[in-house]
Every structure is written in structure tokens, then in C-alpha cells.
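Write out the 3D structure for:
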Amino acid sequence: MGMTEATETKRRPRASLVVPTLDGVRGGAVAKLLDSVRSQTFQDFEVHLVKGVSPQGKAINQGAAQAHGEVLVVLDDDSCLADETVLQRLMDAVDADPKIGMAGASIVPPPGASRFQQRASKQFPRFNTPVVDTITDSDLACHGCCAIPMRAFEEAGGEREDIIRGLDPDLRVRLREAGYRVVLVPHARIYHPLPEGWRRLLRIFFRNGFGSAYARKFQPDSVYETHEALDIGSFQAQTSLAYRAGRFPLRLLRALFTGKLMRFGAYCAYACGYLWGMLTAKEASIGEG
């Protein structure tokens, strides 16, 4: 059963912060996140911790249903705002352009990152998102930290509750289809944990591969590309299975011949997870968290 906690407010807040979390602790990460939230220069918000609800889309929808703010700010429970200006920058962005449907913060390595984590941040663009100087249309905005005007969230139909992987690309696509922009906000940064070593890195990509296979088998309409470049000029949200299958060995070879061994290992783990998922995944009942 989910549990939602909110700060008390005597009037309608500008923003509602929604943090999906299984246990409300996440090994101490939730407390650090809330500390960074309390230090923000922008303070006209309420906070909803949505506990024990899965998948993530259902948790976010539950938080949005109880929110009173004009803007929904979604935060991963293991994220941390990098400085005290993040929320103000996100709010300024959505206030400046009514066509912005998702204003995201860049993900950067946390202070004290190990050598392994620093190397990983250089080989995987989504572990280390470019920090932009101007509002930039980009597919790199994500649920780790983003502001979504409530009107845009509702027009897009909210989050899908029937998918276990690919929540970010799915919402980005539907927001754009509704006529909204998806952007990165200038100098808005968050910290997000990086894999501590090879075992964790390979587990993440094995899990992603399994999730991709599940989606391909049971929810093919939810299979989208995850763009790694800042520019979205040539980005296509959906490509054929044949195209993706043909591209994969080329990615493996490129990673190998450019010396990106972490990337090569991650691709191999992803392929193993995908094959395992195609062989063993069974359709599950989603949304009974």
C-alpha cells in the first residue's frame, strides 16, 4: 500500500514535489535529497513522498493526484540537488515559455566520485549530462529531476502505469505529441549515484536488457530510442527491430576499438539480459504495488 506525506500549506503552492520511493529511506539517500530540497532559494512548494507504490508511473500519478501545485516536480529518491538554485531555475524555465512541457536538470557526477565512477561518467552520456548555458531542446531531460506544468502533464495523459521500463522516453514522446517542448535548463544540476564497480554496472545493463525484452514481447508500443546526444535534430523516437539488431554489433565494435571497455561490457550485459528476457519473461500483473 502506498503512503503519501506532504508538507502542510495554507494556500495553493506553486510547485508540488513528488518523490516515488519504495521505503522512504533508500539507504539514506532520501534524507540527503530532502536536505537539498530544504536548502533551495525557491520555497513555494509541497513535498509528497509516495512510498511502496510500483511501478514508478503509478507512484508519480498517485502523487500528482494529491498535488495542489501548478507545476509538478518529479525527483528520483536517490537524486540530490547540486546547489540551492535548482528549483528556481526549473520554475523560471517553465514560467518563461508556456510551451515547455518538461524542464529537466543535467545529471553530473557527485563530489567524491571514485576513479571507476569518473570513467563511467565519461563513457555513458546519461551518467553525465552536459550542463547547458541556454534552454536547450534535448532528449536528455528525465525523471531524475524535472518540472512539468500540471496542464501539460494532464494533456499528455499522465504517466503510463502498465510499463516497467522506458518511462522517461514514453512521457517525452507524448509531451512532444501534445505540442510541448522537452528541454534542459541552464545550469540546473543534480547528483545521481554512479555504479560503484563492474558488478553493479553489469547488473544495471543486464536489468535494462531484460526490461527491454519484456517491453518488446508484451508492450511493443512502449519501445522507444534513448538518445545520447544533446542535439535532437536527427533523433527518431522509434526505429524498427531490424534496424536496432543491425546497429548493435556496430556499437559493440565501436566501443571495443575506441577503448571504451566499460561500454563494451555494458553492451554485452545488456545483450545477455535481453536474450534471457526473450526466453524467460512472462507477462506480469502491473500496478498492484
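Residues 79 and 192 are 5 Å apart (CA to CA).
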